[in-house]
Amino acid sequence: MSFHKTGRLLHDDGEHFAMMVSRALKDALGYRAASIKQVASWTGAGERTVKNWFAGSCAPRGQHFSALVRHCPGMLDAFLASAGRSDRLAFVDVQEARKRLRRALDALEFDAPPETPPGS
């Protein structure tokens, strides 16, 4: 009688998630030794684990994924897109555009010369 190995095999959803993480990491950082060290420092995970994330052979768990999203904005974008929530990406883009517009308007008001009263 033979026993099945358990615990390490990815199911279809897990494979999809692992590949999404892999693509997002490679898009954001490339695939270099420095990238692996950077992600390891962000997450506290070991370099071997991070190499597996880059390879797409396994996916990060919750706390590590949260750290990846915190440090790598492309990770959240990729996750929302894979979950079919691209509408949330548009909302975030609009919010960011508003913030930048407010900063630009504040800078213009700060740099503008004082107004002279009409008829002076």
From TrEMBL:
Designated name of the protein: XRE family transcriptional regulator
Organism of derivation: Enterovirga rhinocerotis
Organism placement in taxonomy: Bacteria, Pseudomonadati, Pseudomonadota, Alphaproteobacteria, Hyphomicrobiales
